[in-house]
């Protein structure tokens, strides 16, 4: 199917948009004229530079799905990964793409934020080492150097991972390399890294001819979580429900289209990013796309499991990363997702 999605599908989509908008208006929300003919500006702060995690977003932009929904979407690349959630909390953007851990931390600091959909509903953060490092499992990290990005909650990950294998942080040498994880392991400065993504650093290492072992932290004793989520300003959400609901529905269309056509999705990411490698981007997109959708028939697109969030929040509380355990209703809502929750 071409970028326009076909005349019949487009007509059906417009009818759906009108129906959703009418329903939202009936719930006492703002009555802007949200329509394809009068698209409303809609700013989205990205979590990082343009990459494969954003394939659904840029595919939806390229195919006109957001404009079908009456939204003129403008992604914004942040100056640093901590900026997006602050931008949405301050009301300077309509939505932000951020991380479940960052939502918990921001809420604990009193910021008005709430997750409204999962973008990547599985941990990507991984422990990675290379063949030839002398490491076969976590127990072999004793005496080794581990590169990290210096993120406090990832220090709690590392502590937990080591303790499960009878080690402590005193048994390893931890070096904070900020965003230099890949150079650290390639140069031999570190024997392993914690904080690289399975669909980025894990893919890149293979393309460089290396043989990496890549283990997501969810398989190493860390409670599973949603790596990337859409975050709204909870103080403004009642007024913005209509637009947020339409955004998520269009993002689902873009994500499904990307999964169906990885070549088109790769092109969308390359066109949006600056200086990205076509070879590496194509491989990262292929690895990422299967991770963006829930298993067939299990949950609606974007679903966040409250029990899963509660377990992960308990992990944060147990490690002193947050002062109080939040109610899941205060940090997430599934009410704006396409379809109904059973």
Explain what this protein looks like in three dimensions:
- This protein has 13 helices and ten strands.
- With 342 residues, it is α/β, with parallel strands linked by helices.
- It folds into two domains: 7-122 and 226-331, Periplasmic binding protein-like II (D-Maltodextrin-Binding Protein, domain 2, 3-Layer(aba) Sandwich); 125-219, 3-Layer(aba) Sandwich (D-Maltodextrin-Binding Protein, domain 2), CATH 3.40.190.10.
- Mean pLDDT is 89; it is low at 1-31.
CATH topology of the largest domain: D-Maltodextrin-Binding Protein, domain 2
CATH-wise, what's the superfamily of the largest domain? Periplasmic binding protein-like II
| Residues in helices, as a percent range | 40-55%
Morphology call: globular
* Percentage of residues in strands: 15-25%
Question: Any idea what the CATH architecture of the largest domain is?
Answer: 3-Layer(aba) Sandwich
Largest sheet at a glance?
Answer: 5 strands, mixed
Distance between the termini: 32 Å
Task: Give the ordered list of helices and strands.
Answer: HEHHEHEHEEEHEHEHEEHHHHH
Number of beta-strand segments = 10
Radius of gyration from the alpha-carbon trace, in angstroms: 21 Å
């Amino acid at each position: 199917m071409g970028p326009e999605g076909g005349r019949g599908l487009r007509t059906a989509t417009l009818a759906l948009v009108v129906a959703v908008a009418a329903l939202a208006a009936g719930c006492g929300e703002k009555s802007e004229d949200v329509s394809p003919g009068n698209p409303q500006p809609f700013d989205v702060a990205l979590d990082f530079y343009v990459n494969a995690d954003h394939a659904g977003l840029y595919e939806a932009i390229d195919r006109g799905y957001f404009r079908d929904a009456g939204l003129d979407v403008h992604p914004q690349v942040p100056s640093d990964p901590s900026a997006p959630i602050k931008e949405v909390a301050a009301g300077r953007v309509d939505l932000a793409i951020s991380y479940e851990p960052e939502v918990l931390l921001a809420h604990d600091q009193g910021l008005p934020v709430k997750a409204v959909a999962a973008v990547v509903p599985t941990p990507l953060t991984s422990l990675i080492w290379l063949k030839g490092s002398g490491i076969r499992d976590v127990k072999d990290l004793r005496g080794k150097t581990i590169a990290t990005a210096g993120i406090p909650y990832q220090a709690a990950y590392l502590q937990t991972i080591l303790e499960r294998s009878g080690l402590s942080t005193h048994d390893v040498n931890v070096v904070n390399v900020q965003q230099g994880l890949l150079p650290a392991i390639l140069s031999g400065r570190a024997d392993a890294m914690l904080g690289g993504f399975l669909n980025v650093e894990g893919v890149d290492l293979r393309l460089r001819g290396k043989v990496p072992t890549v283990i997501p932290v969810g398989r190493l004793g860390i409670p599973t979580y949603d790596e990337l989520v859409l975050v709204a300003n909870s103080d403004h959400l009642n007024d913005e429900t209509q637009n947020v609901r339409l955004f998520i529905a269009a993002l689902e269309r873009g994500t499904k289209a990307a999964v169906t056509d990885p070549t088109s999705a790769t092109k969308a990411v390359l066109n949006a990013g600056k200086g990205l490698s076509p070879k590496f981007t194509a491989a990262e997109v292929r690895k990422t796309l299967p991770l963006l959708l829930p298993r067939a028939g299990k949950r609606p697109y974007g679903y966040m499991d409250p029990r899963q969030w509660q377990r992960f929040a308990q992990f944060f509380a147990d490690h002193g990363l947050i002062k109080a355990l939040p109610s899941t209703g205060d940090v997430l809502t599934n009410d704006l997702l396409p379809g109904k929750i059973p």
